[in-house]
From TrEMBL:
Its cofactor is Mg(2+). The gene is rfbD. Binds 1 Mg(2+) ion per monomer. Catalyzes the reduction of dTDP-6-deoxy-L-lyxo-4-hexulose to yield dTDP-L-rhamnose. One of its GO terms (molecular function) is dTDP-4-dehydrorhamnose reductase activity. Pathway: Carbohydrate biosynthesis; dTDP-L-rhamnose biosynthesis. This is dTDP-4-dehydrorhamnose reductase. NCBIfam families: rmlD. SUPFAM superfamilies: NAD(P)-binding Rossmann-fold domains. It comes from Mesosutterella porci. It comes from the Bacteria. InterPro entries: dTDP_dehydrorham_reduct, NAD(P)-bd_dom_sf, RmlD-like-bd. PANTHER family: DTDP-4-DEHYDRORHAMNOSE REDUCTASE, METHIONINE ADENOSYLTRANSFERASE 2 SUBUNIT BETA. Keywords: NADP, Oxidoreductase.
Length: 282
């Protein structure tokens, strides 16, 4: 049996659905069931010791707002994972490509030194560091440009689809490059890592993201095309959309450690976008 925090988010929903479909017992803990910064409540819910793993999908991911509210970001993204790790249950924690500065155009390896540009990135890196130094068992899975096609979720895919339905033309930045990752694919990858026993070892880092890379503009254009929408997508530079937080310009994750551990590679980001089926290899 596994416990999933942040179970009402896009990744949490995908993970609970996939695990349940495979006959894996799941305790789904959404925000209403568990404040991940509440140590007493964590102990109450997880202290029985009957879980094979806790998968932490809870996150403060309001990137721009974190610049003004860093305390909230650090509480959820750094302090909470450390609290969860104190239960003695192997922890799978989800992190982000935003721990890198995106200056280099080569693939980001798990061994590369992080250099966050934003309060959000700093808070996620602090969570990683707390876990790596905690002595706990488990793994940290960094991902990138996570999205879900499910109605009611909030992400880049949903924003572009909504705008493309409302407008004849939209502008999207073409100087930020990354790897779109479907939530269902990441959920599958996490379960594969658990099946491989990676969570039972001392805390370590993995990357998982859609294979290949694209700009935000190329991703948006592919979304419009995949959804059959009649909207022109126009490329612009990041400066056209001033924001509080700086984003990495080129953060493409190398998934070689995941591929070696699980014996399978992520599918291409465009294949995932255009497919009506989730990536299923279990």
């Amino acid at each position: 049996m596994i416990a999933v925090t942040g179970a009402d988010g896009q990744l949490g929903q995908a993970l609970v659905r996939r695990a349940s479909g495979l006959g894996i017992g799941v305790l789904a803990l959404g925000r209403a069931q568990l404040d991940v910064t509440d140590s007493a409540r964590i102990s109450q819910l997880l202290g029985a010791g009957r879980f094979e793993a806790v998968v932490n999908c809870a996150a403060y991911n309001a990137v721009d707002r974190a610049e003004d509210c860093p305390g909230e970001a650090f509480a959820v993204n750094a302090y909470a994972p450390w609290l969860l790790a104190q239960q003695g249950i192997p922890l799978v924690h989800v992190s982000t490509d935003y721990v890198f500065d995106g200056v280099s155009e080569r693939l980001c390896e798990v061994t590369d030194a992080p250099s966050p540009l934003s309060a959000y990135g700093l808070s996620k890196r602090a969570g990683e560091a707390a876990l790596l130094e905690s002595g706990a068992r488990g793994l940290i899975v960094r991902t990138a440009w996570l999205y879900s096609k499910r109605e009611g979720t909030r992400n880049f895919f949903q924003t572009i689809r909504r705008l493309a339905r409302e407008r004849p033309e939209i502008s999207v930045v073409d100087d930020q490059v990354g790897s779109p990752t479907l939530a269902e694919d990441l959920a599958e990858a996490i379960l594969l890592l658990i099946r491989a026993g990676a969570h039972c070892r001392p805390m370590s880092l993995f990357h998982f993201a859609g294979k290949g890379s694209c700009s935000r503009f190329e991703f948006a254009r592919a979304i419009v095309r995949a959804e059959g929408l009649d909207c022109r997508v126009r490329p612009v530079h990041t400066g056209a959309f001033p924001s509080r937080a700086r984003r990495p310009a080129h953060a493409v994750l190398s998934c070689s450690r995941f591929e070696h551990a699980c014996g399978v590679a992520p599918r291409g980001w465009l294949e995932a976008l255009e497919s009506r089926e989730a990536w299923e290899v279990l």
